[in-house]
Amino acid sequence: MVGVFKLKSCAACAAAVLVAVVLCLSARFTNAYAVYYNLSPRLVPIYSVGRDDKLISITFDCAWGTEHTDGILSALKASDVRATFFMVEFWTEKYPQYVKKIDESGCEIGTHSATHSYMSKQNSEEIKKELTSSSEAIKTVTGKDVELFRPPYGDYDDELIRTATELGYYTIQWDVDSLDWKNLSASDIAMRVINGVKSGSIILLHNNGLHTAEAVPIILETLKNRGYTFVPVGELIFRDGYTIDGTGRQQRAQ
Description:
TIM Barrel, 10 helices, disordered N terminus, six-stranded parallel beta sheet
């Protein structure tokens, strides 16, 4: 009887081990593995960059108006900071003088689409048209190719990222949202940014936020005093040999 009991116990243990192995293998190839190990089964844009050199980027989306843009450019120049501006095609065509001014200031320019639509609702051909025409509008003014793309509303799906990548664009989101479009006070905008930044962060602002231009000098001075260095997004990201985890943090491939 003892031998039979031991045999049954061993069989039970073996069965338990087999079940555990099957579950682990199943998890490895399902979303469970992705969630547990902070990976994603979806394609993900770059929200931030995994680096420890205290480099960060400040970005501005341009879709409506220019009333506060000169103040932003003045603040950037005073702090010797180069930012990245993402421009919608209709904004680019309406304000070519500002496109030129931003480019000549040494700042970087990326596309923010042609029509500022929810691009996850578009098919591949529509996406290609949006990216190509908006980039051509920028190049007409600056003479420079466009490599960076920020989806309107932060809205994306696999097809959008895949299509953008095939066309040679890096799709850029953000990990620090100023919420300046809600017309927060300059101090509230600045504190949201300052308290949210870490090495490799990408900061989201808008060129025509009501109090954005007032907040920018506070942000720049405070973060520079804390040892951070601002660079355009194109100099922050890794161009090749990288992975992107489920949080959108770009990392050097091991």
